[in-house]
Amino acid sequence: MITPVQRWLNDYCDRCQTVSSAVVITSDAETQRLHPVAGWPANAPESLSLLAAARAAVQRAHPVLLIPPVSPSETEHARIVSLPLSSGDRTLGAVALALRSANDATAKDFLAHLKRSGGSLISALSERTDGGAGSVEAARLIQIQATLLGRSSLAEAATELANELATALHFDRVSIGLIEGGKASLLALSHSAEFQQGQSVPRQLVAAMEEAVDQRCTVVHPPLPGDKPRIVIAHTELALKAGTSLCTVPLINEGQVVGAVSFERPAGAAPAPAEVALCEHIACLVAPLLALRLRAERSPWARALELLKGSGGRRLKISAAAVALLLAALTFIPIDYRIGAPARIEGSIQRVLAAPMDGFVRKAHVRPGDTVRAGDLLVELLDQDLLLEQRRWESELAQHENAYTAAMVRADRAQFAVRQAKATEAQAQLDLVRSQLERSRVLAPLDGIVIKGDLTQAPGAPVKRGDVLLTLAPSGEFRLIIEVDERDIRDVREGAKGSLALSALPGETLPFAVDRVTPVAVGKDGSNAFEVEARLESSPQLLRPGMQGVAKIEAGRQSAGWVLTHRIVDWLRLAVWSWVG
């Protein structure tokens, strides 16, 4: 008969192709000498290097990694790793593995994996040393629970749990199934990473689990002496097919069956009553953790639906009634419908000051945001050329005046007329130059605010006649421009009231009234918008042209459902029309 220690060693080494041989040693209870109790492969001669490494790990109470000496009988031994096995403060023995790989990193990985997987081996050695035939210590139960919680996915955790239970309880196969929607599905098989639900054995296992779940009790086949009669049709079919005896225990959490665990063993070694009781005890400990992991991996929608179905469906009925009331409120209760759109403040009029002639900027006295009064000097242009021109025409005017005075003294009428005409021409040119000199100083035509044009950083910049130098807006006189989306323009009417919230004054709303709806759309950011002009009913002192914000235009009363969904409904209508025609 294969001992639990030998079974663990066989299972572990069969899964690792890098392992060439292995041995487990333990101490004799009477002589306290270390001797091998299990080896792999079967019937292989004892390896002195493996035994030496295992004894060294026990003596040092520390893992050992060594390079064995070259020996004709141990040519496949490239590295040996050995791990001491202890329970509490008592050393039980050691396990040593001979590896074909000479990579030290691979050897260290095997040593770390041995530390994680050695719990089952420690339990088997403890049972052998203490003489127990099926007991599981509290530490083993804690390890089983840690196995279920310490994996990233439920399927991986369930597979590890099935392996742990099969090794700890000395069963050939342990199967774990889940109950969802009233149907069972196989989640994990011990020592089997892959299986298909449609295969005969998994299908029969699922049927046996459903049989135990439907009866909400443990089903054992063959039945134990004194057991109550149970329905064992699926269990009998599985036992005949696989040649096993089995015990299926439902997993119950908070009165709800979440799954089942099936324990199988060869037909000649049926589970004893004490083992059945132990299986039931473990199922009670595992069920809450399995339900917790199952709930954590469900989608938020599935968890919400499960919560609503609690308390016998009462929550679902209350929730349905609440949803019905909410839909009725959205359909029949009217609310104020307001159209939101971006808005900006502009001056009621904008006065443009242009360059009166070609020239160069001499100095700018204001910049955007400055408040000016009528007659204030705003910009000066260079006037050296004009001053020279003025002197030239003054000189010519004086010459012509002197000439026609002399002609008048001589009574030379022809010369007098010519000189007088030239003096008149020089006077006109002089007046023109003087006028240009006056216009080289740009003055404010009205009280207002400079909203565009910053020439303070550009002295000497050339300008041409007609170039815009500054833009003024009158103080305290504003208009509101609202860019309404074309999908909402049909609901905007002249005279409609609304309120404005500016980014610069977020805590204050300004009332306004719509004056005019511009009938021309303007493209902006990939969509069309109509400019709606409105009149502010109050103008705070901090209000300035160029400020931006959000305007809400009142458009009557509509049901809450219509307000929330009309955009989507309109889009769907247009989409359907474009597809169907």
UniProtKB/TrEMBL annotation:
Residues 154-286 form the GAF domain. Pfam families: GAF (PF01590). Keywords: Coiled coil. GO terms for cellular component: cell envelope. It is found in: Cell envelope. It comes from the Bacteria. InterPro entries: GAF, GAF-like_dom_sf, UPF0194_transport. This is Efflux RND transporter periplasmic adaptor subunit.
